[in-house]
Amino acid sequence: MLMQGIQGRRIKRIAGHNNKTSSRIRSPIPIQYVIISLAFFIALFVNAIEEQQSTLEHAAVIWNHDSSSKRSKEHSNDDAATDAAATRTTERRTSEDDDDSSMNMPTNMNISANNNNNDDDDDDKNNPTPSSSSSAETPIMIGWVVTITGCGGPSDTIITDGAAVLKHSIHLTSIHGSSGNNNGKYDYQMYAIYHPEGEACALPLKDLGYELIRRETPVAVQDIKGKFLRKKIESNGCCGEKELIKLEAYTLTDHPIVVQLDLDVIVLKPMDPLFDLMLLAESPSSSNLSNVVPIMWPDQAIPKRVNAFFTRDYHLIAPERPYKAVQGGFLVLRPDMAVYEEFVGIIKEGIQKPGGWGGLVGPFYGFMTIQGIIPYYYDVLHKNEAIELNRCIYNQMMDNPRDNTANDNPQAKCRTNNQKDECEDCRTRPVEDIVSAHFTFCPKPWTCFPNDVDTIELRLCRKLHHEWFRIRSKLEQSWGRNPVGTGTFQQEHFFGFCSDYGQAGYMNIEQPYGLPMMIPSTSESTDENDDDDEDANHDEDSKGVVEKDDENEEDE
Description:
single chain, 11 strands, globular
């Protein structure tokens, strides 16, 4: 009994203790403790977010700094004459209005590159700088390349004038232009790749803002295995084996895209649609692409990724031949050292017999160099990587698509090998449609040839000559000079830069480049009392007419 009573009292005490403990657990937590706990966890969460955001911002700053530094380095050599002028004269900002050019920019595909237009004062002495864009995003820099394989004397001012006008035509159609709808959205950097034999006439281009690159041919002639190519290449085409330095454009891998052009070319409209397409991860369908890029043969398959654009020289080869020459003065490419090394390997292997590259491509004029090795690479070895453009719009050469012409009517077989025997005559294209023009069939602009006979062979030539001189006028004006020269030969057509018919009448661009011309002093006038003569002498500009030898420009 006693033991039962003791156990009963222990059970009651234990039960009572458990009841008290359970009661404390179930009792509510004070509200201030809840608030303090929530505040603590919120503070931790906010602090973590701030630290992550700070890390991302820091990484973005580093990336932007690296990108800007790289682009600034690429652009540091641009327009050396203008930079030197800045230390000697007050900066001149001139308008680049192109009201006399009623050309509209081609429809562009929408990718991330900036498409803001710059004000007129962005054409500061023709000196493009990435910071001049009104957008916070640095525009993509396109590399533009000319090549010089040699010259006929210590210097060749015709090469210099061609390079000056070409560069300014690119400037006007870039993000630095000031012509409204004709502006592009890409920046540019100019390069002159020259063979050692062309050094004398390449050096003046540095004062125009070209970065000079001295290169030997990719393969020495004695290292070519194929006996036929090794013996024949030095006399092939315009420039022999030296023409292969054009392949050096593939080595400019600081740029996503490079455009290789001859010096007798002008750009009249932006090439943005080509750049847009090459920057896409994958090409759109053929039906959508034809509305943006003028493809020569719209029915052909479109590459998934475009690595090159070119036009063809149909007049170099018989219509029935399956592999046509590529025109050597126009190539839009994606730089790639692996591609360059493959070209080097192809050249080293060479050509064993007259049948051309791979026994397929050739023979025709220039087939041993650029005009043959490019179609061999893209038509045979790497099909469906490149697009042939409509030659009447890009690299317009004013050529006859048929064998002959009589009374403005092209006759005989179509040279483009069209099965329907239908081919467009590029000579009938309006100037407003043309993106770039190449003076091959037309005389060079600096021959001051008037082309004023009303025939199909000359009508478009005359209009495009006028465009070349218009761009030169804009260039002179951007340097603070008179946009009209003192020449009187068809002054309205040639903007006063021709004093007579023929190359001897062409008035060269005068040095120093990038600066206004000094007006001659009147202090040496012998008749101090003749105020009229003094004023006339004060206003007279130096004509600078230079007698020229035979034309030496590369790749006529």
